[in-house]
Amino acid sequence: MSVVRLLAVVLALFLVVPSGVLADVPAARLTVSDVVVDPATPVVGDQVTVTVTVANSVGSESAVRVEELRLSDGENRLARATGVGSLSPGDGVTVPLATTFEAAGPRVLTLSVVGTDTEDRTVRIQRPVPVVVEAAPPLVELSVDGAAVDAETTLAVSLSNPTTAPLRNVVVTANDSVGRVVDGRRTLPTLTAGETARLNLSVVPTEAGERPVGVVVTYTTASGVSRTTTLERSVAVAPFVDDVGLAVVPVSGETAPDDAAGGFDGLLGGLGGAAGLAGGAVTTGGESADDRPLPTRYEVTVTNFGTVPVSNVVLAPTAENETLSRVSLPETLAPGAAATTTLDLASVPEPAVVRLDATYRAGVRDGSANATFRHVPAVADVRLTDVDVLRADGRVRVTGNVANLGDADLSGVVVEVVATDDVTPVFPHRDYFVGSLGGSDFAPVEVTADANDSATEIPVRIVYRVGGERVERVVAVTLDPEEETQNAALFPAFDGRSPTLDAAVAVLAVAIAGVLSVGVLRRRPTRAWLRERTRKLRSRPTRTASDDADRFDAVDAGREV
């Protein structure tokens, strides 16, 4: 009995339960055939598209009307689509759902699809959608200055990591949209959180005008996902212009101090000059009106008036078809910039037209420029002026001035008689040391010699140094045979004294008077001495020409006259 009852109960359940379940199953069966997340690894703040493909199964007994597609993150609804449409058995529809994420990290979204069959029964399905949201990409900034055709242009890239996690394997590359890439790749092993890195790339634009330029940044996120971000902007590219100017300016020398104004040292210097007149002591030439020597150095300014950078500048001067020492500029001249160097033409002692050739790199091309200027160096032009020849009984005295008609400063100036078969230098002035002689300056000189009856000239040699070199010049002073008779009458006029000695005495008197004016010497004895000295000089007996000749012989013999 119990067995029969058990079978009856089982049979009753079999008949009741299936009939109830079958009554609740809709005639339509919805399926989600595909879900695509783009990008696959979304980034915080960027839009993410979840594309869903929904189909009504082929085995469905009725059509279905898709009422809603909903994408949720827990209780938070991210995206929703309604009124999608009806699907017959076997039909499908693709619906995109767009959203953004405000926080990074992995999460599982829920996709819900709700529909109604022909008998108004609700059809509902759900599918999980796993997503990993990454932090924000690195911030990229691009700066381009001075872009020009055929000029290497720098792309200054700034990378910043705004996240709290490091970015690894960062690679920055330049695209070739603007022209030829020269140095287009930089890498960073790690860009730490909050760090900013600056990298330089270089390209050579090939066309002028508004041109696009961009960089591509690839990196690996903290979760190990490789990502890429790009940045592109428009830049103005200037046409290629090669225009280099050369300006040459002489460098003036330093002006020597003017010691002509008094003081006791200046007074003694004047006395030294007077003593030179009397006995061939050391003298110096007076100061010229302008002591600045003509230049041997020139300041060369190279200016870039073009649109491309100029580098590797080499200046090569040429004078009289002779190439001189070259000069280079180490710096690169940006458009509008200038640089200055010094050119030394001390090796060109004579006036000349100098051609200055400049070679350089203008952008990625070779360039050249040239300029010419006249080089007028300081030169020495030494002459004897105001020459006076006194001759008696074979004895000759030559007086005059050694003059520097040039601009160069002379040193070690010596005037001397050159010995020949007919002429012999004799005491007291075989030679005469002048010392220094500036440009456009002069100094008095006196030399003495013996000349026989065959002598027609006295060779006088002037020796000096200019620009570090020793120079000799011989001047022939003509002897007129008739002058001996005329000069015989002139010798007595000097009262047996050298005219230079009288000049020395006169200068000495003036100098002593100047000293007295400042109280250095006592007034009364000095005036008495001057009066006595003047009386003795004037009271000397007048000598004849023959007496004067005897005096020369006595001087040569070393006797006192």
TrEMBL record:
Record region (Disordered): 535-561
Biased composition range(s): Basic and acidic residues: 545-561
KW Endoplasmic reticulum (keyword) present: no
Gene3D superfamilies tied to this protein: Immunoglobulins
Keyword Transmembrane: yes
Membrane-crossing residue ranges in chain numbering: 503-521
Keywords linked to the UniProt accession: Membrane, Transmembrane, Transmembrane helix
InterPro entries: Ig-like_fold
Domain of life where this protein originates: Archaea
PANTHER family assigned to the protein according to its UniProt record, in alphabetical order: CONSERVED WITHIN P. AEROPHILUM, S-LAYER DOMAIN-LIKE PROTEIN-RELATED
Protein name: CARDB protein
Gene source species: Halogeometricum limi
